[in-house]
Amino acid sequence: MMGYRVIFLTNPARLYVKNQQLVIDNGDVFKVPLEDIECIAIDSMQISMNSYLLSRLSEYAITLYVTDKTHHPCGTFLPLLRHSKHLSVLKNQLEMTLPNKKKLWKQIVCQKIENQATVLKLCGIDEWKSIDVLKNMVKSGDPDNMEAVAASKYFKLLFGKNYTRTQDNFINPKLNYGYSILRSTISKYLIVYGYEPSLGIFHKSNLNSFNLSDDIIEPFRPIVDLYVKKFALKDEIDTHTKASLVNLLNCDLIIDNKLFACAKAIELTIKSLSSWYNDKNKSLLLPQIIDLEQHTYE
Predict the structure, then answer these.
(1) CA 270 to CA 265: how far, in whole Å?
(2) CB neighbour burial string for 38-70, b if at least 16 within 10 angstroms, e if fewer
(3) Which end of the chain has fewer CB atoms at under 10 Å, N or C?
(4) Where are the domains of the chain?
(5) Could you say which of 3.40.50.300, 1.20.120.920, 3.30.830.10, 1.10.8.60 is the CATH number of the domain covering 85-294?
(6) Is the pLDDT of residue 85 over 80?
(7) Model pTM?
(8) Is residue 196 predicted with pLDDT exceeding 70?
(9) Do the strands 73-77 and 63-67 form a parallel or antiparallel pair, or are they unpaired?
(10) d(CA 45, CA 294)
(11) What pLDDT, in 10s, does the model give residues 20-38?
(12) DSSP string across 182-249
């Protein structure tokens, strides 16, 4: 059972572990059970910790994010503890045939496009149907690059006809920040479940250690887009926005017809990869976007 608490730190503090709890000492002392923590995001150059803490974070599969002097994510501490059947999982990855990769990539692209259409619909943009229909045009392996066609139309409908992902504006840093949190969380669960993140389904750059993460992230990206559109269009990215983007890991998504927090949905998607390797007729469990609601933990 993975944790669920998302901790975002911006002020000077000392972090250490005592009695299986993370202790945050910034003058006042706060304690959080390690087993309850999903991730820790540090946005300060004045936080100290020791190697014992890092060891315990790895043991509990807790992701640690750090930022640079400009307060942008620059590093992630990921666990190296592997699944007990890592070798068999790796063999499955290496032996995956091209037709099966194409079949899987089609599922991912179709769900991404459907989620993009849902975001437009939730934002009251009438042209959402023009994006949704594109998922029916995706072929095995997406040879016509319908993913890019949909993305180009989608972003212009969402953020304006002159918007591009390469612009220097208030929107892109927020999208990039949110995507980086999702990517790191996906990478963590890939490692926990024994996958080699560099071996992708569609992405295959020799310079990318997280090709598989960049495959899996695609249908999850629209949750970040939805938050930025609804709550963070104006002004530069600030501490509140960063904390909210990290906390998207606790927002509800539908997966396998049930409500789960985003972080749990990521875990279920990656876990379902194993079932897919054993039965290629199965569909990968992928998320469906709904409106932004914090998950309620019982």
Answers:
(1) 9
(2) bbbbbbeeebebeeebeebbbebbbbbbbbeee
(3) C
(4) 5-77, 85-294
(5) 1.20.120.920
(6) no
(7) 0.86
(8) yes
(9) antiparallel
(10) 29
(11) 999 999 999 999 999 999 8
(12) HHHHHHHHHHHTT--TTS-SS---TT-TTHHHHHHTGGGHHHHHHHHHHH-SSS---HHHHHHHHGGG
Q: What's the CATH superfamily of 5-77?
A: CRISPR-associated endonuclease Cas1, N-terminal domain (3.100.10.20)
**H or E element, residue 179:** helix 172-192
- Whether 218 has a binding-site annotation, put simply, is yes
Tell me how long the chain is: 298
Q: How many CA atoms lie within 13 A of 167 on its CB side?
A: 15
Residue 141 has pLDDT above 60, yes or no: yes
Count of Cβ atoms closer than 10 Å to residue 105 Cβ: 21
- Distance (Å, rounded) from C-alpha 260 to C-alpha 254? 6
State the pLDDT at residue 2. Answer: 61
